[in-house]
Amino acid sequence: MNTIAWHYESVAGAPLGAVAHGVDLASADDAFYADLPRQLARHGVIIFRDQQLSPAAIQAAAARLGPLEPSVLDQFCMPGNPFIYILSNIVENGRPIGSSTDGYGWHTDQAYFAKPTAYTFLYGLEVPPEGAATEFANTRLAYESLSEARRGELKALRVEHSYMKMITDRASNPVFAGKVPVPTDEQRARAPDVSQPLVRRHPVDGSLSLYPGGQTVKSIEGLGDEDGLSLVQELLAWCTAERFLYRHAWQPRDLVVWDNRCTLHRATPYDKERYRRLMWRVSITGERPLGP
Questions:
Q1: What does residue 131 show for φ and ψ, rounded to 5 degrees?
Q2: Per-residue pLDDT tens for 99-108?
Q3: Which of 75, 79, 66, 65 minimizes the C-alpha distance to 32?
Q4: Which of 13, 24, 53, 135 could lock 58 by a disulfide, CB 3.0 to 4.6 Å apart?
């Protein structure tokens, strides 16, 4: 591949996000992948249009950025390709081929792991013509937009994240009634509760971002349950204000990659009775989060 051909164009009018031009991820060279972490730290989200990726190719591309991350709910992983997690409302032979309940509500991926997800690859094979957008929030800009005094207050705080708290809350949501699988004891053991800094330092460029987590938050250390959850909701509302957002409207064969250290994201609803949706997700394991 001619490395001179590829370039990035920031999404017009958005506070994060860029479209990569001239890139075929399946054949991109070492120079491209060596530069990609820097571009992700800068833009937060990068969109690659019209990618023709097999299961092996998307896993190989993701592995260029670090170790592939297993999913807790492995019943939704692709047979023969265990690092591809399927997001879908499609039912075949009476069985869902993927999860239809993941991704809703603001969050960063796998914040409940001691080494949470660094990068997420999400590939849209079948996408509804309306709804089903993915929204992203710039948590670096949100942090930098706080007053100096407020930033100082937040720097010392740590957040307890809980996978089971997230699953329990999701199962109690009437929208997902009967659709949230109950984790086995082995799956629960893969994701014990973990403490993370509320303000996170990026390992690529040293910048600071809010890292509130969202659905996985069980408590903030040193605060009562009510005060801790109230603070998390306050920070989520701040981070997801319109001026910090980019909404991605999916096109077939879009591959979107984002940096979980400096972004939040969520899926938006769509008509699951009318439209099919099929997405492949591959996650890359990151480092233990560092505070300020």
A1: 70, -170
A2: 998 888 899 9
A3: 65
A4: 53
